[in-house]
Amino acid sequence: MTSNQPSGIRLQNVSLMLGTKQFRFDCELPAGAITAITGPSGSGKSTLLNLIAGFETPESGKVTIGSANVTALHPSQRPVSLVFQDNNLFAHLDLATNIGLGIHPSLKLSAEDGKRISGALERVGLGGYEKRKPGTLSGGERQRAAFARALVRERPVLLLDEPFAALDPGLRQSMAGLLLELHRETGNTVAIVTHDANEVRQLADHALFIDHGEITLQAEIEVFLMRRDVPGLTEFLKL
Ligand SMILES: Nc1ncnc2c1ncn2[C@@H]1O[C@H](COP(=O)(O)OP(=O)(O)OP(=O)(O)O)[C@@H](O)[C@H]1O
């Protein structure tokens, strides 16, 4: 999350084959908005996120973030931060070090970095947790720490792959609230993969529906929630 200008994301005629599955994506995730990526299991939601993050490379087509063509860039060179369902914290490192990895993979942290880390922990409700190991935290606290790591990176794009799926419903609600607050503060471009129609209603400004590797609807949230003519969408929204 960042002081930089937020950047819109665009996939133009992107195609990719994984095993026997073909994916074709043509879409736009507006700058500064929260876009929900939805669709049935196995439809290609994580694949779309991986193409934006750079963990997958298209066979043809182009991925741009802001004005930059990032199609051939390594994940570390892209202006993105990531939060996954299983938060990816290193069990043997304390939280300050885990979060510091978001700033410098080399772990050479300055006093200034230390202040940023403490500030990010404070911001997500984990003030004073610098020396705690991930194993001593609850699932919700670990996910807050993963958000703190994304915060210190100060990147204009935040990519979330089912970040709250492992949490119980009450905690999901409070984490969704935290995400909304952080988004209001940073104005970042956010893409969130979710199975949860309530999360879409609560968080998203814009949404995509993917079916069998293709985007069958992309729309502002008010329009997305009203459409009844897209196969599978009504079932997803549990209408
Ligand atoms: N590296 C790969 N090799 C072969 N098949 C793959 C690979 N990665 C993904 N797939 C297949 O592509 C399809 C889409 O996968 P993806 O993870 O993008 O779906 P998803 O919509 O995120 O699913 P879920 O909601 O179940 O997490 C799945 O059938 C998956 O098995």
UniProtKB/TrEMBL annotation:
PROSITE patterns on file: ABC_TRANSPORTER_1 (PS00211), ABC_TRANSPORTER_2 (PS50893)
A GO MF label: ATP binding
ABC transporter domain ranges (all copies): 9-237
Protein keywords: ATP-binding, Cell inner membrane, Cell membrane, Membrane, Nucleotide-binding, Translocase, Transport
Annotated SUPFAM superfamilies: P-loop containing nucleoside triphosphate hydrolases
Residue ranges of coiled coil: none
InterPro entries registered for this protein in UniProt: AAA+_ATPase, ABC_SmlMolc_Importer, ABC_transporter-like_ATP-bd, ABC_transporter-like_CS, P-loop_NTPase
PANTHER family with a match to the protein in the record: SPERMIDINE/PUTRESCINE IMPORT ATP-BINDING PROTEIN POTA, THIAMINE IMPORT ATP-BINDING PROTEIN THIQ
Family to which the UniProt record says this protein belongs: Belongs to the ABC transporter superfamily.
Name this polypeptide is given: Thiamine transport system ATP-binding protein
Organism field: Neorhizobium huautlense
Organism lineage string: Bacteria, Pseudomonadati, Pseudomonadota, Alphaproteobacteria, Hyphomicrobiales
